[in-house]
Amino acid sequence: MFSQLRFRTTIQKQRISIALDVSVPNCIWSKTEQKLRYRKQDLKRAKVDFSAYDCDLINSRISYLLNEVQKHQVQSITDTGVIDIDDFIKRVKALRSDNHYITQEQIDEKQNITLVQYLTEYSASSGSRFNPYTLNKTPVTKSTLKQYEQIRACLINFMYYTGESLELSCINLKWHKEFLTYCSEVEKYGPSNIGKFIKIIKVLLKEAERDGYNVCHDYLKKDFFKPSSSNDTDVPYLTIDELKDIQNLNLEHSHRLQKARDLLVIGCFLGQRISDLKRLEYSDIETNEDGKKRLHIVQKKTGKKVIIPIPPPVQIILDDWGYFPNQVSEQKFNDYIKEVCKIAGINTPIKGHKTAVITITRKDESGASYELKTPRKAPGLYPKYELITSHTCRRSFASNWYGKLPNSAIMAATGHSKEEDFLRYIKVTPSDHADVMEKEFEKLMGY
Questions:
Q1: What mean pLDDT value characterizes the chain?
Q2: What is the pLDDT, as a whole number, of residue 136?
Q3: Is the separation of the CB atoms in 52 and 34 below 8 Å?
Q4: Which of 82, 105, 128 corresponds to the end of one domain?
Q5: Disulfide-capable partner of 2 in 23, 98, 286, 394 (CB 3.0 to 4.6 Å)?
Q6: Is residue 33 part of a domain?
Q7: Residue 195, Cα to own-chain centre: how many angstroms?
Q8: pLDDT tens-digit map of 252-305
Q9: Do 57 and 94 reside in the same domain of the chain?
Q10: Who wins on pLDDT, 316 or 430?
């Protein structure tokens, strides 16, 4: 049985449904992937003659339509800030004609593109790209573009070292296994970095398929995993007692250390990223009807609105300075707070990772080996103050209040959307979890 495809979407609360000039067999249409997926058993069961039916061409037409619609949405929002619904409908109806679809010859030209080539195109278009599912106009950040360049260089070095193909159609489970081995054993990357690479590669493959390129579907399988970074994320947190020791330091001899210390304390009690801490102004504080002071901010990374009460330690600092002491670069802040924590005697040896220069062996385009000195994170036991960074602020806030405040309240401040992500994020031990459970039992059962 065949059904005619329809393009459906919602724009500015108005539902739109447009019939396309394509009919597909119900038995091989994937509702989840919104494309044709057929197997031999499907064809036999349905008794359909596919000799004149080009499923790859139909899928490419669908991808082309969606891609062109997305470009039109981006352009409309960029030019006017809104989408003209009537114009949008006319555009979709014009695109549904066969004359506007990608041709078989164009499809054939797309078969041999490499992952590096697609990444280059994808990165170049980052300035005009937005999230097709949320219409989020947040631009791609410099750090994301830097990650694109890092993975691009790694892919090229992998190709030189192993001789493996980088064509999109060859990125399968075998390729995935060899790439993980190369990143770990040759490049000496940790699980966190490798996980970011795999995440980017999966996004690229998904987008390439949407653009009509020939992509191997192994990236959708469970075995095409990204390594867990749980053991690689060793940013420590500062306990309440350690924060008290830091607050009680006499740093009158150093104005820069005073500011860094106070911003560190503010961050640990507000739980925000350094990008948000550096943007805080006194005007962000509002007083509610009950006379309570609340900090109102919109997080730079997520765009989430966060409202946080001003704790006494933060208010004391604000009273002293009259403003948020956040006029410092992130790099200098990281350097200064290590110095502050060292003075406070926070030097217990803990497991972690520190950047060190190591020697790795790569191969050039001709296959000749050469050695290169490069920075990598090295695991080991280090004095705790050496591992303190700006990210310690959020971890300290979440870890210190875990079990004392409802998880939902902590997540509302940190901006976590999922509790499972929050629980992976906090730095508490299994014993800490047991203590929390014990306290909850005491509350519920009265003993």
A1: 81
A2: 45
A3: no
A4: 105
A5: 23
A6: yes
A7: 11
A8: 999 999 999 999 999 999 999 999 999 999 999 999 888 889 999 998 887 888
A9: yes
A10: 316
Q: What is the pLDDT of residue 72?
A: 67
Reading the block at residue 265, the tokens are 């304390």
Q: Do 121 and 135 reside in the same domain of the chain? A: yes
- Give pLDDT, residue 131: 47
164 & 70 share domain: no
Tokens found for residue 157 = 């070095």
Q: 326, 365 in Cβ contact below 8 A? A: no
- Show the 3-state SS of the chain: CEEEEEEEEEECCEEEEEEEEEEEEHHHEECCCCEECCCHHHHHHHCCCCCCCCHHHHHHHHHHHHHHHHHHHHHHHHHHCCCCHHHHHHHHHHHCCHHHCCCHHHHHHCCCCEHHHHHHHHHHCHHHCCECCCCECCCCCHHHHHHHHHHHHHHHHHHHHHCCCCEHHHCCHHHHHHHHHHHHHHCCCCHHHHHHHHHHHHHHHHHHHHCCCCCCHHHHCCCCCCCCCCCCCCCCCCCHHHHHHHHCCCCCCCHHHHHHHHHHHHHHHHCCCHHHHCCCCHHHEEECCCCCEEEEEECCCCCCEEEEECCHHHHHHHHHHCCCCCCCCHHHHHHHHHHHHHHCCCCCEEEEEEEEEEEEEEECCCCCEEEEEEEEEEEEEEEHHHHCCCCHHHHHHHHHHECCECHHHHHHHHCCCCHHHHHHHCCCCHHHHHHHHHHHHHHHHCC
